[in-house]
Amino acid sequence: MPILRPEAPTELPHWFPIIGHTWSFFKDPVKLVETGLNYTKRTREPFAVQIIGRTFYIITAPEDVAAAYRATTVLSFDGFLNEALRAFGVDAPSLKLAWHKPTLGDDCYHESNPVNPKQKPFVHWIKDIYRQALLPGDRMNYMAAHFHSFTDQSLQWGRVFSFAMKQTEKQGSIGVSLKEFTRTIMLEAITDSLFGDTLVKIEPNLIKYVAEFNEEAWMLVHRYPKRFARRVTHNHRKIMDALDKYRQTPKAVRTAGGESWSIETVMTAQEILGMSNESNNAFLMLIHWAYAAPLSPPKENFPLTPSSANSNTSWLCFWLLSHLLWSPSLLAQIRAEIAPAFASGALNLAYLLSSCPRLDAAFQETLRLGGGTVSVRTVTAPITIGAKQLAPGGDVLIMHRALHSNEHVWGADAAAFDPERFLKNKTLGSHASYRPFGGGSTYCPGRVIARQEVFIFVALALQRLDMELVPGQSFPRLDDTQPSIGVTGPRPDMDLFVSVSERRVEKVE
């Protein structure tokens, strides 16, 4: 109690022990945080809530978040990571093996290990693989080029026409769900850049299962009661079954289908390590989930950490296009800005990334408004943050949406979409209250390729397609009714419907 321990974070009132604030957190976490901010008179000091019998310290002040990211020895991510691994299907013996450092005499020790010569624990080794694949370099360039090629083909008019819900009154136009259009193409492109075309051939409905899984993945991560999580459990099983068949496919077939270096390397390491079959499938599923959304803070920590999964970049494309369609003047400005990137006919990605500040500002603002990730750390020793002492055994929740809506930083119009703020104030992109990719030692290595993926998709779509809003719609609302583990999508009953036609453009000299 604060009266007895004034140095402890204030705990929000609740009626029932153990249950505490559990229902409020799962029903509307944004509202719970706002309640806490108001209860503590918006001082942004840490406050405590009770969720499923555990104490969680909620941190919202930029300086406190920075302190939490620096405290890597006291605030540990390993506990939450283990929970996520178990939730995805890694069994206890395999989990133990994944954290074990191979030593001489172990079955998993190979003196001439071709992929792990330093004999690192699998969990630590796979971080290195993730960084090699996603940080700038030849391997990242290969993945980006693969994604670029696939997206280029997917945004040809013949493929776009397959998304038609109906013909529109305007000749040559079709009606399209922006949600399904962005989500499907992005998930297909990312899956292909990892597994080639083999995985989708094994399970033709894979993209549907992945998309549905992403909508409710938080239930799996937060151990939601299974009787209320039947659909996410079903989709998890379908994806795991497809990955099991993929692992049994001959290597020559997988290679011919376009398997990436990272997947090939991980599967080689799995064969040497000797985890269970189900656990190997679970690790591959988590890798797919993480690679396909390489930009939200929990994944900041590890390639196998949940981050709303492979929906992050697709939701970014959805929101960015939504904002542009809602602002025709901004749409026209960005179209003019990106036009020189197509001077040769093909997209010049280097130009797009270096010479389109307005597109970049719109991307940053979309990240600010759409990113709703909660990063989790376990307190392993007493630590003082924000003049409040956090007790061992509790968990720290770093609320990125609270950072991104901080009125002291972003102003009274913090809830408004205004890319100009990043153009007028160049320091905002590195401000302590702007952390779309996490921070500290766990700064997300996928931030570079994520930006490239979104820029490629949006630029190709704007260059090739004329898109207009179907009249009579409201701007979709963020789905803040459930815990977010990445970039948040729209509420389930919301979408944007657009009239799409093939765009004719003259070559830019």
Cα(first) to Cα(last) distance is: 70 Å
In percent, how much strand structure appears in the residues? 5-15%
Could you tell me the mean pLDDT? 89
Structural class from helices and strands?
A: alpha+beta
Q: How do the strands of the widest beta sheet line up side by side?
A: 1-2-3-10-7-4
Shape: globular
Please give the radius of gyration in angstroms. 23 Å
Helix content range = 40-55%
Unreliable stretches covering 5 or more consecutive residues:
294-309
How many strand elements? Answer: 12
Number of helices: 24
> What's the story with the biggest beta sheet?
6 strands, mixed
Explain how this protein is built.
There is one protein chain. α6 runs antiparallel to α14 (261-273), α7 (138-154) packs across α9 and α11 crosses α12 (230-248). The protein is an alpha+beta fold and 509 residues long. It has helices spanning 22-27, 29-39, 62-70, 78-88, 92-99, 122-134, 138-154, 157-161, 178-195, 198-202, 206-221, 230-248, 251-257, 261-273, 277-291, 297-301, 312-326, 328-338, 349-354, 357-370, 400-404, 407-410, 420-424, 447-464; strands spanning 10-11, 47-51, 54-59, 75-76, 166-167, 174-177, 374-379, 383-385, 388-390, 395-399, 465-469, 497-502. Residues 294-309 have low confidence and may be disordered. The strands form 3 sheets. A 6-stranded mixed β-sheet has the order 1-2-3-10-7-4, with helices on both faces. A hairpin with a 6-residue loop joins β5 and β6 (174-177).
